[in-house]
Amino acid sequence: MTAVEEWDEGPFQPEAITVRVPAKINLSLSVGPLRPDGYHELVTVFHAVSLYDEVVARSARGIALSVEPLRRDSDVDAVPADERNLAWQAATLLAERCGVEPNVRLTIRKDIPVAGGMAGGSADAAATLVACDALWGTGLRRDELHDLAAQLGSDVPFALHGGTAIGTGRGEHISPVLASTGLEWVIAVLDAGLSTPKIFEACDARRRRSGEQAPAPGVHPDLMAALRSRDIGAIGAALYNDLQPAAVEVLPQIGELLALGVAAGACGSLVSGSGPTTVFLVDSPLAAANVEAELRASGRCRAVRRARGPVPGANVVNVR
Ligand code: ATP
């Protein structure tokens, strides 16, 4: 007779939770008129792509954080490892909200290019909410995590959500978009900084010069129809960003990169958000290889990566 092992009925206390979280690009960005408070109303289509950071949350006394590269060439130098890090702020906020001690050692393994407009910091904050919620057993519902995410920053709720979604307000109101096909991208991060306020100012100045009245922001129906179809060419043609002309004016290299990618076979190209990241939609592995090779050869990019989308938002991938 074999002995039957006793099943421990006590609560499972995980030691370490690993959460994987994707970067985002913007398939469209519609910028409304300048408001009296100095902000613009925005409507964007977020798209989560398969470039990931991982956040590992381990039991500890007090809060500690470290940042390491996930790949050999991931660059983490500019990322603070203290309370300035959005992940640290996320852990503190969750602990306050749930009335628990913020006892956690966070390790951020970065692969999302830093300061590339791909919302890497926001992604880490979203991943930390999910990881600490599981580690501490605080058991918040997704909508409760979403509320905390919105307090941390306008891109954080989408990092929880993933997929393809329309973002309104400051980006924190998310409605999913039905996209019927997977998309392949080549993503290039320009080796030059682009100040977001400067791009918005340049956009306003262009509109003043041309006497153009900015319409209320929205999502173009062509993009919605293209995303529902399986027509990659139509999707490529429907990508748009109201900030792109201003970004190209401020940094002409962006225009050169966009043209280079299309000449190499991309079916669509776009400045993502306020840049300096440019994204190229491709319809075959050959086109992807050609576009990637041309962008690398330009010597203007600090990162050129391939990715597919849409992918899910922050989710637990390992529990120990
Ligand atoms: P934004 O969301 O402002 O558009 P971004 O997506 O361009 O930012 P991030 O990679 O989020 O770029 O980094 C922007 C800055 O935020 C970094 O230079 C860094 O100082 C700070 N930061 C704070 N926390 C993090 C984090 N966890 N990962 C990366 N950067 C962080």
TrEMBL record:
Residues 223-299 form the GHMP kinase C-terminal domain. Its EC number is 2.7.1.148. Keywords: ATP-binding, Isoprene biosynthesis, Kinase, Nucleotide-binding, Transferase. GO terms for biological process: isopentenyl diphosphate biosynthetic process, methylerythritol 4-phosphate pathway; terpenoid biosynthetic process. GO terms for molecular function: 4-(cytidine 5'-diphospho)-2-C-methyl-D-erythritol kinase activity; ATP binding. Pathway: Isoprenoid biosynthesis; isopentenyl diphosphate biosynthesis via DXP pathway; isopentenyl diphosphate from 1-deoxy-D-xylulose 5-phosphate: step 3/6. Gene3D superfamilies: 3.30.230.10, GHMP kinase, C-terminal domain. The active site is at K24, D155. Pfam families: GHMP_kinases_C (PF08544), GHMP_kinases_N (PF00288). It is an enzyme of class 2 (transferase). It catalyses: 4-CDP-2-C-methyl-D-erythritol + ATP = 4-CDP-2-C-methyl-D-erythritol 2-phosphate + ADP + H(+). InterPro entries: GHMP_kinase_C_dom, GHMP_kinase_C_sf, GHMP_kinase_N_dom, IspE, Ribosomal_Su5_D2-typ_SF, Ribsml_uS5_D2-typ_fold_subgr. Residues 85-163 form the GHMP kinase N-terminal domain. ATP binds at P113, V114, A115, G116, G117, M118, A119, G120, G121, S122, A123. HAMAP family: IspE. Belongs to the GHMP kinase family. IspE subfamily. NCBIfam families: ispE, PRK03188.1. Catalyzes the phosphorylation of the position 2 hydroxy group of 4-diphosphocytidyl-2C-methyl-D-erythritol. This is 4-diphosphocytidyl-2-C-methyl-D-erythritol kinase. It comes from Actinospica durhamensis. The gene is ispE.
